[in-house]
Structures are given as structure tokens and as C-alpha cells.
């Protein structure tokens, strides 16, 4: 639910758990003496420290967290009579705040910015935009299949990229433009496949109802693209002024959205007994409640796994994992929710997958080009080989 801001860091991963002071790499006797214990240690179970610095485990954890979050959200809001979206999001935020508070008291979170009236006033507009983003996202997921929803989420990347161009003079490279074109094409193919499947050669009442549901989903998805881009661009601007860390951002976001979501739920949603029974049918009540609790916990889990993945790999690897992860998320919709498998839907998923890969490479090459273009020496001015001046 909550967005997170993570500083891109690249950190080497030690190949051994321990180092021995005073030993030379070329000391073959020492190497032979210690070779046997090192080999035998491979057969022992991994310690917590080993797991914490294990790149494949971090990637797998991030993928599992994001896939499960999408599947659980879809399950909760897919009820035939579900109409308590504001309540659902408020429950997520409350669970998230409760867990963060317990972790802080247990010493698992070392520092957390205290809540003050001044900071809350400055951050409240961001939380308001977050409500718009998560509400439209949940409504779009309610009306669209998971594969289509995943494909259309790519359009937010385009909106954010051109928003950065407009606001901060960013640049969209040719390769990024190719990726954006593939994203748009995949969305068009996905919409065409959805509409074609809904019609199924007929124009009866059922087909018209299906088309109406799809149009509603596309409307919410379009609103979500706008809300997500607005939130992300605004967050980038405000977070620098507030000097918030990851946990601070998550804490303030969830805390300040709670009153907004509760008031919106009380004003717009039906809290009558009959409607509650429709939203929580007896045969599914326990599973829905478990899903709501898990979705709140998964909010924290995804944020932690994102930071973990970047820490033990790199920001580039994390971006690539995010692009690759769209494929299993889309496939999960085909498996768990019986989304129609057609040539159109498979083609759209493939195009969306390729567009994500192309965009990840475009960002990597853009970053590499910026690093290479930065001068690190100014020999022309002073002839010193130790000059570290860098022109702005």
C-alpha cells in the first residue's frame, strides 16, 4: 500500500563470512589449512547473517511478496457484492501502523521520526494523494483481470517519465521511447483481447454487462495512472525537504491516511448489517479477514524486501527484477482467477514483459552514460593528477 523511497546503493557481497587478519592471498599453506573447514561449512544450514546477505534469497522474497500482495488484494475485492474499499484500505493502514509501532518498541526499528503537527501538515497533501492512488488502484484491480491490470500499470512509468521531463527537465532516451511504445502497444492488445473475449461473437445482455465492467475498469485504471504519477512526482519533491528515511515515509503515509480513509468509509460506504453480510459471506468470511490482515503485513514486507534487494544486489538489479516480476504476476492471474488464456492475452503479457526489460536496460545505460560523462580531473587548469574537481 505505502510507497517507499529507497536510496539507490550498490554494495559488494562478501564471498566468505570471515576474514583472517595478516593473511596473504598468495599464502597457499594457509589456504590449504583452511580449505577443508570452508568446504564443510557449505553443508551446514545458512545462518541468519548468511541469509541477510544472500542476493538470490532477497530477490525471491521480493518477488513472492509482490505476487502474493497482488493475488490477495484481487481475492479480497473480487466478491460479487464487494463495496467496502475505503474500509479495506483503512484496515491495511491500521495493521501497518500497529506492526511498525511494535517493531519500534521491540528495538527492531532503530529510529523513527516523531509525529509533530508541523511535519503532519507538510506531509498531509502527500497522504491525500496516496489515498487517491491506492483507491483507484484497488478499484481498477476489482474490475480488471490481474494480467490486464499488470500490463496497464506500465503506463504509469510513461506518465512519471514525462512528468519529470516537464517539471525538472529530464530526458527520455530513444531506447526508453521504444520501451514506452511497447508498453502502449501491450495495453492496446490487452484491451482488444479483453473486449473480444467479452463479446465472444455476441451482443447479448451478458456481453453488454461485461463490456460495461471492462469500461469501468479502464476508467479506474486511467485515473490510477494520473494519481500514481502525481503522487510519485510530489513525493520526490517533498521528501527531500522533510529528510525522511524509509520507515518515516511509511509511518507518516499510513498514519495520516487512516483518518481520511475512515471518514471516507463512514460517509460513502454502507455499514448496514445486510451489506456487511454481502461483503463478508459466511463461507468466505475467515479467508477474507485473513487476506485483509495479510495485506497489511505485506505492505511492510514488500518495503523491507525492496530495500533488502537493493542493499545486497544493486539498484539496476532491482529494476530488472521488477521488470521480470511482471510476468509471474500476470501468470498468477491466469492460475488463481481463471483469467481467459487467449492469443491476445498471451501476446499482451509477452509485450508487457519485453517492454519492462527494454526499459530496465534503457535506465541502466542512461545511468552508465551519466557516470562516464562526469569529469573527475581538471588537468587543463592546474596540471595536477590529484584534482578531484567536478563541474556541475
TrEMBL record:
Topological type in the membrane? Multi-pass membrane protein
Q: Where is this region: Disordered?
A: 1-31, 371-392
Record's InterPro entries? EmrE-like (IPR037185), TPT_transporter (IPR050186)
Q: Which UniProt keywords apply?
A: Cytoplasmic vesicle, Endoplasmic reticulum, Golgi apparatus, Membrane, Sugar transport, Transmembrane, Transmembrane helix, Transport
Domain of life, per lineage: Eukaryota
Intracellular or extracellular location(s): Golgi apparatus membrane; Cytoplasmic vesicle membrane; Endoplasmic reticulum membrane
Q: What SUPFAM superfamilies does the record tag this protein with?
A: Multidrug resistance efflux transporter EmrE (SSF103481)
| Entry GO CC | cytoplasmic vesicle membrane; endoplasmic reticulum membrane; Golgi membrane
Which ranges does the record mark as transmembrane?
Answer: 85-103, 151-168, 175-193, 218-239, 251-268, 288-310, 317-337, 343-362
Low complexity: compositionally biased ranges: 382-392
Q: Which family does it belong to?
A: Belongs to the TPT transporter family. SLC35D subfamily.
What function does the entry list? Involved in the import of GDP-mannose from the cytoplasm into the Golgi lumen.
Question: What is the protein name given in its UniProt record?
Answer: GDP-mannose transporter
To which species is this protein native? Colletotrichum spaethianum
Amino acid at each position: 500500500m505505502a510507497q517507499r523511497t529507497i536510496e539507490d546503493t550498490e554494495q559488494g557481497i562478501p564471498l566468505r563470512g570471515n576474514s583472517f587478519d595478516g593473511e596473504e592471498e598468495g599464502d597457499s599453506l594457509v589456504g590449504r589449512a583452511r580449505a577443508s573447514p570452508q568446504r564443510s561449512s557449505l553443508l551446514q544450514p545458512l545462518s541468519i547473517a548468511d541469509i541477510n546477505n544472500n542476493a538470490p534469497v532477497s530477490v525471491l522474497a521480493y518477488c513472492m511478496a509482490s505476487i502474493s500482495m497482488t493475488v490477495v488484494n484481487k481475492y479480497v475485492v473480487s466478491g460479487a457484492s464487494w463495496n467496502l474499499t475505503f474500509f479495506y484500505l483503512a484496515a491495511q493502514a491500521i495493521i501497518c501502523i500497529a506492526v511498525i509501532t511494535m517493531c519500534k518498541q521491540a528495538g527492531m526499528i532503530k529510529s523513527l521520526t516523531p509525529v509533530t503537527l508541523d511535519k503532519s501538515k507538510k506531509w498531509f497533501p502527500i497522504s491525500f494523494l496516496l489515498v487517491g492512488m491506492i483507491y483507484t488502484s484497488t478499484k481498477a484491480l476489482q474490475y480488471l483481470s490481474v494480467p490486464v491490470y499488470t500490463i496497464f500499470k506500465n503506463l504509469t512509468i510513461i506518465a512519471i517519465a514525462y512528468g519529470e521531463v516537464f517539471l525538472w527537465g529530464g530526458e527520455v532516451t530513444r531506447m526508453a521511447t521504444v520501451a514506452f511504445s511497447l508498453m502502449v502497444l501491450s495495453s492496446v492488445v490487452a484491451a482488444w483481447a479483453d473486449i473480444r473475449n467479452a463479446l465472444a461473437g455476441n451482443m447479448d445482455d451478458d456481453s453488454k454487462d461485461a463490456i460495461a465492467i471492462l469500461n469501468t475498469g479502464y476508467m479506474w485504471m486511467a485515473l490510477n495512472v494520473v494519481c500514481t504519477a502525481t503522487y510519485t512526482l510530489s513525493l520526490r519533491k517533498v521528501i527531500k525537504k522533510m529528510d525522511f528515511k524509509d520507515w518515516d515515509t511509511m509511518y507518516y503515509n499510513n498514519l495520516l491516511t487512516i483518518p481520511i480513509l475512515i471518514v471516507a468509509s463512514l460517509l460513502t460506504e454502507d455499514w448496514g448489517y445486510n451489506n456487511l453480510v454481502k461483503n463478508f459471506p459466511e463461507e468466505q468470511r475467515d479467508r477474507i479477514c485473513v487476506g485483509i490482515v495479510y495485506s497489511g503485513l505485506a505492505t511492510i514486507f514488500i518495503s523491507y524486501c525492496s530495500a533488502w534487494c537493493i542493499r545486497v544486489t544493486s539498484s539496476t538489479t532491482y529494476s530488472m527484477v521488477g521488470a521480470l516480476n511482471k510476468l509471474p504476476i500476470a501468470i498468477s492471474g491466469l492460475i488463481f482467477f481463471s483469467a481467459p488464456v487467449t492469443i491476445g492475452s498471451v501476446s499482451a503479457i509477452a509485450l508487457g514483459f519485453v517492454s519492462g526489460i527494454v526499459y530496465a536496460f534503457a535506465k541502466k545505460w542512461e545511468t552508465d552514460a551519466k557516470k562516464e560523462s562526469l569529469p573527475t580531473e581538471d588537468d587543463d587548469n592546474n596540471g595536477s593528477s590529484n584534482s578531484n574537481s567536478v563541474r556541475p
